[in-house]
Amino acid sequence: MFKKTFMFLTIFLIAFLLESTKLPDYFYFIQGIPRALMFKLENRLLVLIFFMILILIYRKKYEKVFSLDILKDKKMYVWITVTLVCVTFLKQTSIGFEDTFGLIRLPQLSTLHLFFLLLNVCLIVPIQEEILYRGLLILVPSNRLRVVMLIISSITFALLHTDPLQIIWLGLGLGVLAIRFNNIWVPIIAHSIWNLLVTYINL
Prior knowledge:
Layout: H1 2-20, H2 35-38, H3 41-58, H4 74-95, H5 111-139, H6 146-159, H7 164-181, H8 185-200
């Protein structure tokens, strides 16, 4: 059990280094888009390639975790909705409900910039972060360690954001969804919806 957990923690550290290491300039293949909009896009793509290789190697062993059959489960969408509502409430409770809560904001971006922003925050970021934090740290290790790994993954996830005391609620919510359905696509969908909402609404 601990050997398996150690192995996947090592994989997590490799993926984390791929995500956080500053890449040489020739890796930045998208020109003309402000770096602030891209959120380490090239780093994230490297991590995704790394994960794709691992999935090809271990796909039979963890086939259920990546099964798309979960998308047919109507209860899953109810769980996602309730979880995101709870996360929003807990987040706002922890910081005090602001006067701007719920206000719609429209990013002043060109169509191209907006496309890359949404592609990044609604597709690439959720897939990469959920495989890294909920997949490797919660779904892959032993079931007996899932509660402990839920806390560890949520804290790690939160500390890598600028507002950890708010984001930790999101990490816990996504972790609960991953454990409840034993499937990585559930937190990916929830994370994507969350990112889409916070892009346009002050939650």
